[in-house]
Design goal:
Largest sheet: none
Radius of gyration: 20 Å
Number of helices: 11
Strand content: under 5%
C-alpha cells in the first residue's frame, strides 16, 4: 500500500510518542536508580531513598507517565496499521494494555517503601525490620519487571509483522523487531528459570535490542516512504 500524507503524519506522531516513551523510561533507569540504590547494601539504599525522597518520588511518577505514553503510542500504532492488518493491530494493543495494571501496582509498592522507611506505617516495627520490608517491596518490583520482559518481547511480534507487511516502512525493521522481541522473551525466561545465564543473553542480544530505537528514529525523521521510495 502507498502511504498518503495522513499516514506520514500519523507515523511521525508515533515516532514522537516513541521518543517521549523512551526518554521517560530512561529517566528512572539511568538517572534515578543509580543515585538511589547501592548494590548489596540495603542500609545505604534505604538511607538514599530518604535522603533523595523527592527524586525517588519523581521516579515513581515517571513510571506512570511512561505507561500512559505507551498506551497513547499503541493507540497511534493501531491507527497507523489497522488498514494493514486489523487482527495484528488488535493483538498489539492487547499485549500493551495488559501491562498497565502492573505499573500501578509497582507505583503502590514504591510508595509503600517510602512510607515504611519514614515510619508512617508499620510503626511498631524496628528500624532494621522496616528497612528489610521496604527492600522486599522493591525486590517484588524487580521480579515483576522480570515477568514484564516477556510482554516487552511479545508486543514486538505483532508490531514487527505489521511493519513488515506495511510496505511504507522498510521491511528490515520488521525483521529486526522480531529478533528484538525474541531477545526480551529469552531474557525473561533465563531471568526466571536459569538466572545464571541472564548476563550472557543480555550481552549477546544487546545489538538486537536497538530495534525499537531505530524504528523510533525512522518514524520521527522519515515518517513513511514516499511513493518513489515505495516503488
Amino acid at each position: 500500500m502507498n502511504a498518503n500524507p495522513e499516514t506520514k503524519k500519523t507515523a511521525r506522531l508515533a515516532g514522537l510518542l516513541f521518543l517521549l516513551w523512551i526518554v521517560s523510561g530512561f529517566y528512572d533507569m539511568f538517572y534515578v536508580s543509580p543515585k538511589i540504590f547501592v548494590s548489596g547494601d540495603v542500609v545505604a539504599s534505604a538511607q538514599n531513598i530518604l535522603k533523595y525522597e523527592t527524586l525517588f518520588r519523581t521516579g515513581i511518577f515517571s513510571g506512570l507517565i511512561t505507561s500512559t505514553i505507551w498506551v497513547l503510542l499503541v493507540w497511534v500504532f493501531y491507527q497507523l496499521f489497522r488498514n494493514v492488518n486489523e487482527r495484528y493491530s488488535n493483538l498489539l494493543v492487547a499485549f500493551v494494555v495488559v501491562q498497565v495494571p502492573v505499573a500501578f501496582v509497582k507505583a503502590g509498592l514504591s510508595m509503600a517503601t517510602v512510607l515504611t522507611l519514614k515510619g508512617e506505617i508499620l510503626q511498631s516495627f524496628e528500624l532494621a525490620q522496616r528497612q528489610d520490608l521496604a527492600m522486599a517491596f522493591l525486590k517484588i518490583n524487580d521480579y515483576s519487571v522480570l515477568a514484564l520482559e516477556l510482554f516487552w518481547g511479545l508486543w514486538l511480534f505483532p508490531l514487527a509483522i505489521l511493519v513488515y507487511q506495511s510496505a511504507f516502512i522498510p521491511r528490515f525493521l520488521g525483521v529486526w523487531l522480531i529478533i528484538n522481541g525474541i531477545v526480551y522473551v529469552l531474557l525473561s525466561f533465563t531471568s526466571i528459570v536459569i538466572p545464571g545465564y541472564k548476563d550472557i543473553v543480555f550481552t549477546v542480544g544487546m545489538p538486537a535490542m536497538f530495534g525499537e530505537l531505530v524504528l523510533m528514529l525512522w518514524l520521527l525523521i522519515k515518517g513513511t516512504r514516499d511513493k518513489r521510495g515505495h516503488e
